[in-house]
Structures are given as structure tokens and as C-alpha cells.
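Subject: two folds for Thursday's group meeting

Dear M.,

Sorry for the delay on this. The cluster queue was jammed most of the week, so I only got both jobs back this morning. I'm pasting them in the order they finished. Each block is the input sequence followed by the predicted C-alpha cells. Could you check whether the formatting survives your parser before we put anything on slides? The first protein is the one we discussed after the seminar.
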Amino acid sequence: MMVKYISFMIILGVSLLFTSCVYHFDLDEAEGIPKLVVYSYPGSGDTTVVRFSRSLPVTGKGEIVSGLTGTNVRLEVNGTPVGLLWTDKALPGVPAKSYYTVQRYKEGDRIRLTASAEGLETVSSVTTIPAPFPLNSVHMERKPSDPGTLQFQINFTDKASTVNYYAVTVKERAKYWRNGDSRVYYDEEYTAYMDWNDEPLLKVSAGLDEILIGDYTYYEQLYIWSDEKIQGKNYTLRLNKTYISDYETSIQGEVYTNRKQYKVCLYSLSEEFYHYLKSMNEQVNNKLGESELAPVRPTYTNVENGFGLVGGCRMMQTEWMDGVKE
């Protein structure tokens, strides 16, 4: 559904579409040589969006502008061309100035994208659509040993015959009711920061950075892992956050009830998508690089002769769940 694609785009954030400015360049190669930048996440919904921009060389001036027009683009699924449409205006699930197609995929579909634009070298990229996330159940409870902690328990069974990559993020929504009125007065939604101290799959050693700087941070609160340690096994992933019960608050003399709700979003990632997100995490956690005590780490790309990412992805999400009562 296109609604699922919207949720996916919100989770990853607009920043995934505008990261060309953070690429690590060889100055001798990059000076004065703009490249075509492409981002597309086939499989994340039934609508595939392809967006282009022109990279800004290290010595160049100006701003990165996404939504490059005049691009010749070809999308193939298992060698068969798929028609792409262009839109100047934003559509449901499709940003303005984008190519798109409504296309359903199945596990193992091979996606190849090639594109060219005047004055830029032709680019190409290949990815494979992964299997859906192998979810069994999602359970939420107050941690028995620590009632002040709300724990999300995500049970799944990894597929033994393939190498798999996964991600999870948790959306949090605060809803407010005016006392005596059953209608929701106000609500806000955001991506929750989760504590993974109880989850060995998410504990990452950041080397010297970890020793000198501190805790590891996941980019955009999107928690990624591979099945290297659990291949073919049934496993329960555990994420924690502070427990917050319903409470009342007074605003300008009116009393409101606040209630928390949560939604768990689960992803199966292609190898390319996983390595891209892993490289973003390495950049976020490269504090020594920011202090010029270590090299700046490059952003992964699977776009030949260009930059960006064409990454297969499958997403599913739970319904909104009320917080656990006291």
C-alpha cells in the first residue's frame, strides 16, 4: 500500500535523500567532476520512487538540489523493463520531482537501474528484494526486574538458507484528551530512542571511539543487525525504554489526560541497504574523525560511476499499541 511507503519514508527521514554532501572524495578525482546521485528503495511498498540529484564537487559552490530533471532512466525487474512516470508535484507516497512506478515484488527479484543525464557519466546499480521480515510476535511488557522499564520483545525465526539483514524502529505517539471529552484534543508522533543494553545483537564495539567517547549511536534510531550470530534460529529481540503511565496535565486551566501508544516497524534489508546504513552509523559514531584524529569514513554506495543507494527493502508494521497499564 502507498500508506506503508509513506511510513517508510518518514522513518528513514528526508536526510537519506540528501546525503550526497557527506561522501568521502579523493580530491584529485573529485575536483570539478560532478556525479549523478540516485536513491531508490524498491520493495519498501507497492510504489517505487527514484530520485536524482547532481553531486557538488569538493571545490564547487552552490547547493545540492534534489529532483533532477532531464534524466534518462531505465528500471528492470529480472531483466524486464518497467515503465516509470514523472511527477512535478508531490503525490501520496511520492515526493515532488520524482520518477515512480506502482510495482509489487517477490523475494529474490533482481532490480537493475541505469540512468544518464547531460554532462554526467551514466550510472548503474543492482539490488535484490529480500524475503519479508520473519515475524512471529511482538509483545510489550514492563520489565519484571525493573518495573520502570517498558520492554518490547520481538520474536522471529531467521531463514537458515540465506544471509539476512534486518532493522527495527519504534514509533511513539502521545495522545491528549480534554477531561470530559471523548475526542482526541491533540496528538504528536515521533521516532522513539530505544535502549539496547539487553540486546546482544545490537551491541557494537566502536573501537577507540567507544573507549574515548562513549555509547554507540544508531542513525535515525533505526536499529540494524545481521543474522550472523543467529542464522536459522528462533530469536527474541529485546528493546527497552522508560515506562510512562497515563497522566494528567493542566493547560490554561483545562485538565488533559496523556496516553502513550507505540508502533513497531520491522524491515528486511538487502545487503546493499544494510551496508549503507552501517556506513551511516560509522559516520555518526566517528567522533575521532570529527576531531581530526582519524580519517573521515566514507558513505557506502552501490551506484557505479555515481553516488547514492539502490537498496531492496521489505517493511511491515504493527498497529498502534496502547502502553502497558499499571
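Second protein, same layout:
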Amino acid sequence: GAMNAQTSLVESYLDDLSKYTKKHPLVRLQRIFRSIPGIIGNRVKYVNLSRDEQSRDIREALDLLVIAGITIPIFHSDATGLPLSAEEDRASFKLLFMDIGLAMRVLGHDWSEMQLLSDDSLVNEGPLAEQFVGQELIASSSSRERVNLNFWKRDKAQSSAEVDYILEIGSKIFAVEVKAGPSGSMRSLHQFMLKNEKLNDLSLRLHLSKPTLTRVSHSVLNSEGEGVPVNYRLLSLPLYMASE
């Protein structure tokens, strides 16, 4: 039933890529199409999308898939002010697939099998949760334009960190941490809030537990490796409330 329909849709998309083969071989586009679901949640390295091909060719092919709506890029932003897009690093990005069900079909997953997983098993399905939340953010947007998604990262030896989504709502920046299980480390969120709490002292966590609003007080390492206090409010919501 549903799985057959998904398989048929995936095959239709793969066949449809022949429209874009004026400059790129069909096999390259199809290979990249099939590779994207496997790297959701990870920063893109071109070699993971298509080995033995030039980065420029892969980048151009990806641009076509973005225009076609098959994949959605999430660009890194330093998030030190508004708009977030002004501080985008377009060389550092992650990708979402067009649909969570089709992503699972490309990966060979069966939804009925996924429903049988325990919460502990779902912890290993973080990319699936990120895909779900990204789709919900896009679908719930009131904008007629394509939604711009961002994430935040810091690559420092003693205080590296990455926050799944950074949202621009009104005049505030919201950090959104996505957890596939009921809990998990909040270290990256602490790092972001240490840098950003003057812009907004409220952050969001989407996970498997009930809604809560708590005050977080924690000691974290700053960029110099010194322990400093961070204080902020944390609104935790179940994943299914992402669109709210």
C-alpha cells in the first residue's frame, strides 16, 4: 500500500531527473538524490554525496536539486544579529530531503518497523527527528517565499558546539535543539546561550517528553577554556508540537 506508493514516487523522481541532464549525467543526479537521505543532520562533504567526481560538478547538481525542491539546504549562521541570512556561511551547510517518508524509503526503512522502536532505539534516529522538525518548520511558515533554515556551529578545540536550528522570529533569535529521545546532552545549547543570551534568554528543545518551562543555570567553558556561568529559560516541547 503506502510503501508501494512511496517506491513509485521515488522512482518517478529518479526518472524525472532526466529533465536536468543537459549539463549533468543522469547517473550523477540519481546518485546524489539517493545519497542525501543518508547524510541528513550532517554537514555536507561532497565526497559523501558522490565519490570520484569534482566538487564543482556535485555543487552544481545540488543547486539543481534545491531549485527542484528535492532537497533543502540549512546554512550555518554566526547568529550574532538579524537578519540571520546576513551572516550565512554558504560553504557550511546541511541538507534535508523533500519528505521524511520518501527519505526512509530511499534508505530502505519500513515505517511499520520504526513504530516498534523503543525510545532508547530512537535516540539513534536523531537525523530522522531533524528531518521531521525541518519539514514542520517549513510547512508551518506563513511566508509565501521559500523558508530559509539555519543552524549554528562553533569549531573550537575546547568548546566546539552545534545547534540544530536557529530561528528568526520577530526581533529575536531562537535556538532550537532537537532530541530524538526524551533527554540528551544540552552542552551545545549552553554554548550558544552563553554567546547569545543578551539577544534572547529563551531557547527551545523539541524531544519526546511533555511540555515544560524551566530555568537553566550551568557552568560552561568559554572560548578561552574558562568556566563561566550561563542562565536562560528552556521551553521543552514534544516533537509533534514543532509547528507550534
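Two things I noticed about the second structure. The chain has a mean pLDDT of 87. Strands lie at 71-77, 88-97, 149-154, 161-169, 172-178, 202-207, 212-221, 227-238.

Cheers,
T.
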